[in-house]
Amino acid sequence: MTRAHSTGAPGRTTHPDHATPPDHQADRASVPGDRSAGTVRRDAAAATEQSPEATAPGGPATPESPAGPPTPQAPPARQAPLGPRARLLPALDAVYRAQLSRARVARIPLLFVATFQSVGIMILMRGVVDDAAGARAVVAGSSVLVVAFVALNLLAQYFGQLRAGGGLDHYATLPVPPAAVVLGAAAAYASFTVPGTVVTAAVGCLLFQLPLAHLWVLVAVIPLAGAALSGLGAALGLLAPRPELATLLGQLGMSAALLLGVLPAGRMPLPIRYARDLLPSTYGVEAFERTFGAHPDWPVVGLDLAVCAAVGVVSLAAAAWAYRRAAVR
């Protein structure tokens, strides 16, 4: 009689004939739930070695979506060409019209102040000057002083405020040359001086009993002297670090034009005469002064106007340089 073998569970016995056969043990080992972690890793590695397409960068090529030729890349986008810069004369005309319409509101006070100031100076000098040479110098200097008040003093204040308020950034974004901005503003301010200059010259001729026949010379004197003084005023306003300093420099420039332009040159000391030659409006004053004679020396008048034009070109070039310097800061 065969004895029963005891199992781990109490009360249960396993007969040798009922032991689990080896084939059943192999089947149990093949059940997925009973596999160990090492067996699972070995199976995964074997599957990877058998199908290397799975590890390819593009993934396996399935029959439904066969791998085709590579898609051609689009060519790099080209930068659109910029339009040509505006020419000087059209840009100058546009800036001139804009400045003229902006300052049109204040034209009457400007004309009144500039004209009244020059006429008052002539009335004051009427009791001091008693010779013909002095009278011609006073009338010519007082007439050009109207241009100096607007083109030098007020333009320096305008550009000083424009720089301090960031207005130069607006002009810097426009496709216009810097010379057009300076010339347009200068021409607009000088345009307001035409009536006041003509009125001052006419009143001075009547006050000092000078001939009125050659007042047409103002057609050349006003723009040339205005260009020279406007370039100086714009340069002072653009180079001044603060608007208050620009106002001060404009006032000092107008005072120099008053003292050196109105007073007769023959009564000045020699060093003051040299300083007078450095003032841009001096040559316009002398050209206008020579026309009051009985027989004007027209070649000399033309030479004075040519020198005034050259000084105007230099002063406007300096103003354009000052504009570029102020716009990039």
Q: Which structural traits does this protein have?
A:
single chain, 329 residues, mainly alpha, two-stranded antiparallel sheet, 13 helices, 2 strands, elongated
Q: What is the number of helices?
A: 13
Shape call: elongated
Nearest-angstrom radius of gyration? 47 Å
Strand order within the widest sheet? 1-2
Number of DSSP E strands: 2
Structural class: mainly alpha
Largest sheet: 2 strands, antiparallel
Number of domains: 1
Description:
With 329 residues, the chain is mainly α. The chain has one domain. Helices cover 65% and strands 1% of the residues. Strands 1-2 form a two-stranded antiparallel sheet. The protein starts with a strand and ends with a helix. The N terminus is likely disordered.
Q: Would you spell out the secondary-structure blueprint of this structure?
A:
Elements: E1 5-6, E2 13-14, H1 22-29, H2 37-50, H3 88-102, H4 107-126, H5 132-164, H6 167-172, H7 178-191, H8 193-208, H9 218-239, H10 243-262, H11 270-277, H12 282-290, H13 298-327
Antiparallel strand pairs: 1-2
Summarize the entry for a quick read.
By secondary structure, the chain is mainly α.
